[in-house]
Amino acid sequence: MKKIAVMLILFVCLCSAAPAIAGDMMSMICRNQVVSVGDRKGEVSMKCGPPLSQSKDVAKSRVTQTTIKKKSEKKESDDNKAVTTKKKTVNERSDTWTYIIGGAYRFLIFKEGKLAAIEAGGTAN
Q: Domain range holding 28?
């Protein structure tokens, strides 16, 4: 019975440490307050203060495609439908704020004014 309890505790610890090992986090502690993915820039700024540095980037360009089928006057088959395709290119902009928390770099990536990701960096010298 003790072996099962120890294995269960070990499993839970390893699962909870996995995001930190991977480098991406869902939240972090900043000035004794929790900052989480989904927080707005103003909230993060109030909790963490001004960042060490800021950068603005175009994160991704993506193409969205919409297909519209118009019914023809004949109701014989789907082959008689006119097809219109519209393509739209969307540039996703991101802001990256850099902090040093606990002697290590933390990169807070914002998209559309909300915190989208927290990445861990190397140690600050």
A: 24-60+91-123
What is the Cα–Cα distance from 73 to 23, expressed in whole angstroms? 57
Report DSSP state, residue 76.
S
Could you tell me the pTM of the whole model? 0.58
CATH number of the domain residue 114 falls in: 3.30.1450.10
Residue tagged 């006119």 (tokens): 82
Tell me what percent of the residues of the chain surpass a pLDDT of 90.
42
Residue type, 18: A
- Pick the more confident residue, 55 or 60: 55
Q: Which pLDDT score, from 0 to 100, does residue 12 have?
A: 47
User: Residue with structure tokens 């960042």?
Assistant: 51
